């Protein structure tokens, strides 16, 4: 059986860990798809946007902090189907250090938290996030 991919989506993803090795996850709000699910700080690239610029933009938009360091780690892919459409998302994952731990969320998210691998995997996660957590934490 073959599947037609309707859209390919490049996504810039930040894995942010604190001094205890816990990872930062954000809980999506009602203005977003996958309401109440948890995800990394991440976002789709805009037209002709570079991956590092996209991630810095997303971090500023979603957390209201800047980046002091970012190193590319790996790339994951996930296939999603919604409303009869097939999407293939490529998640380009960076290890990121933030300029501050003073986080102010945008309206896309209603909560944030720092989680161990075990705690994170027990949460309802946006598709593809568990694979990143399993592999990198």
Main sheet: strand order: 4-1-6-5
Mean pLDDT: 94
Shape assignment: globular
User: What percentage of amino acids are in beta strands?
Assistant: 35-45%
CATH class: Alpha Beta
Count of separate structural domains:
1
- What's the CATH topology name? Nucleoside Triphosphate Pyrophosphohydrolase
- Bin the helical content: 10-25%
Major sheet size, sense and barrel closure: 4 strands, mixed
Derived from helix and strand composition plus strand pairing, the structural class reads alpha+beta
Q: Please tell me how large the radius of gyration is.
A: 15 Å
CATH architecture tag: Alpha-Beta Complex
Which ranges are low-confidence, i.e. pLDDT below 50, for 5 or more consecutive residues? none
- Give the termini distance in whole angstroms: 34 Å
Task: Report the count of strand segments.
Answer: 7
């Amino acid at each position: 059986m073959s599947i037609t991919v309707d859209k390919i989506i490049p996504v810039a993803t930040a894995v942010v860990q604190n001094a205890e090795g816990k990872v930062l996850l954000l809980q999506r709000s009602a203005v977003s798809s996958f309401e109440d699910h948890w995800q990394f700080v991440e976002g789709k690239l805009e037209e002709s946007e570079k991956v590092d610029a996209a991630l810095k933009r997303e971090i500023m938009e979603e957390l209201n902090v800047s980046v002091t360091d970012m190193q590319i780690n790996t790339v994951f892919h996930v296939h999603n189907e919604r409303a009869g459409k097939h999407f293939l998302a490529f998640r380009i994952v960076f290890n990121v250090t933030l300029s501050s731990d003073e986080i102010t969320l945008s309206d896309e998210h209603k909560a944030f938290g720092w989680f161990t691998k075990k705690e994170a995997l027990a949460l309802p996660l946006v598709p593809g996030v568990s694979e990143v957590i399993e592999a990198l934490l």
